[in-house]
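Hello support,

Our group uses your service weekly, and this is the first time we've seen a run hang past the timeout. The protein is Peptidyl-prolyl cis-trans isomerase. I'm not sure whether the cause is the sequence or the server load. Input pasted verbatim:
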Amino acid sequence: MTDLNSKPEIDAPEGPAPATLEIVDIVEGDGAEAVASSTVNVHYLGVEYDTGDEFDSSWSRGQSINFPLQRLVAGWQQGIPGMRVGGRRKLTIPPELAYGPAGAGHHLSGKTLIFVIDLLGVS
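Update from on-call engineer: The timeout came from a worker crash unrelated to the input. Re-ran successfully.
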């Protein structure tokens, strides 16, 4: 049973990183549905695909975040709509939908990223 009141754990992936966005519902929510124009309230954990190293986590800061979905990386913009409040979803995001190719200026450029996202609210 998945506990949405605690920080998720991400199992080490096996094999090569996917070339396209992968969306996996860990828990399907039954609340309001996120759409492309939503502002989302989420808890999330982000790790690098190749190393499994955590690079960011709202859980570690002790509070969720609110963001207009349209201001987030393309992988979130494509991977969150359709998700319902109360759900937990894993997104595996290739570089072109995250922070771009290696050398694009962000420390995560060129990396495939895995996020586990808990959708707490939409507006």
